[in-house]
C-alpha cells in the first residue's frame, strides 16, 4: 500500500509539472527567457491559456500599417481578444464531431504516440471573428482556409522578393484533429486530457514541438520561415522568433511576419 501511494504521489508531481510547464514556472529547465524587440512586422501573442484561441487578421494589420499610424499598429500587433473554447452544448449540435474528446495518453510510458480515446462530449462550435487569417492556441495554429509550406529560410529578410518563388511548392492545408488542442486538465492525474475537436495546421503548428517523455516535457522551437497561402491567393510569411515571455512563460509567441508577401 505504501508503495502504491508513493507511485501516485510521483505521478501527481509529474502531471503538475506538465500543467505548469507552459506557464513559466519551470522556465529554467528548458531555456532562459529572452527579451524581444517590438516593431512593425512583429506580433506578440500571450497564448499560454489552455482555454482560449487568439485570432490574427493580416488584412487588418496591413490596413493599419498603410495609414502610417505606428502607435495603432503597435497596439494591433500586441493586443488580441481571447475566444474561449466551448466545453458545453447550449444550442442544437451543428454536426456529430464538434465537441470535446477525452483521450488517455501514456505520459509515464511510451509517450504521446500511445493513446486511447475514452469519451466524446458535444459542444458548441468554436467562436471566431468575422475576419481572420490564422488563430493560435498555445502550440497549436490553424488557418482560415489556408495552406502552409515550411521553407529552409531562417530569416524573412532572406526570402525571395515575392511569394511567386514558392508557386510550385507543396502547401499543406489544415486537417481535423481530436488530440492536439488540449483544453481540460481536470483528469490529468489519470493521464486523461480533454481535447477540442477542430481543424489545425500540422505544418505551421510544428513551430513548437512538445515531447513527452521526458517528464517534464521538452519544448523545441522551430525558427524556419513558413509561407501561408490563403484562398484568395495572397500569401504571408511568418516566423516564430520566440515562444518565451521576458518573465519566462512558455507559449508566449513572438511572431515575425510579412504580409502581403
From TrEMBL:
Pfam families referenced in this protein's UniProt entry, alphabetically: HmuY
Record-linked InterPro entries: HmuY
Alphabetical keyword list: Signal
Family annotation (CDD domains): HmuY
Record keyword Signal present: yes
Signal peptide: 1-21
Name this protein carries in UniProt: HmuY protein
Organism, scientific name: Prevotella lacticifex
Amino acid at each position: 500500500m505504501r508503495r502504491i501511494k508513493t507511485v501516485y504521489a510521483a505521478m501527481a508531481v509529474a502531471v503538475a509539472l506538465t500543467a505548469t510547464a507552459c506557464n513559466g514556472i519551470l522556465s529554467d529547465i528548458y531555456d532562459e527567457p529572452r527579451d524581444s524587440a517590438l516593431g512593425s512586422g512583429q506580433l506578440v501573442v500571450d497564448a499560454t491559456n489552455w482555454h482560449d484561441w487568439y485570432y490574427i487578421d493580416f488584412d487588418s494589420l496591413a490596413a493599419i500599417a498603410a495609414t502610417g499610424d505606428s502607435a495603432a499598429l503597435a497596439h494591433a500587433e500586441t493586443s488580441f481578444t481571447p475566444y474561449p473554447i466551448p466545453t458545453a452544448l447550449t444550442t442544437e449540435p451543428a454536426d456529430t464531431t464538434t465537441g470535446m474528446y477525452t483521450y488517455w495518453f501514456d505520459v509515464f510510458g511510451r509517450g504521446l504516440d500511445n493513446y486511447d480515446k475514452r469519451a466524446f462530449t458535444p459542444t458548441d462550435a468554436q467562436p471566431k471573428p468575422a475576419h481572420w487569417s490564422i488563430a493560435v492556441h498555445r502550440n497549436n495554429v490553424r488557418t482560415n482556409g489556408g495552406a502552409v509550406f515550411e521553407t529552409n529560410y531562417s530569416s524573412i529578410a532572406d526570402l525571395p522578393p515575392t511569394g511567386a518563388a514558392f508557386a510550385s511548392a507543396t502547401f499543406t492545408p489544415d486537417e481535423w484533429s481530436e488530440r492536439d488542442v488540449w483544453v481540460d486538465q481536470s483528469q490529468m492525474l489519470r493521464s486523461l486530457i480533454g481535447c477540442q475537436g477542430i481543424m489545425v495546421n500540422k505544418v505551421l503548428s510544428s513551430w513548437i514541438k512538445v515531447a513527452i517523455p521526458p517528464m517534464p516535457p521538452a519544448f523545441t522551437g522551430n525558427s524556419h520561415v513558413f509561407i501561408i497561402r490563403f484562398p484568395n491567393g495572397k500569401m504571408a510569411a511568418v516566423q516564430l522568433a520566440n515562444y518565451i515571455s521576458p518573465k519566462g512563460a512558455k507559449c508566449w509567441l513572438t511572431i515575425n511576419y510579412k504580409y502581403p508577401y
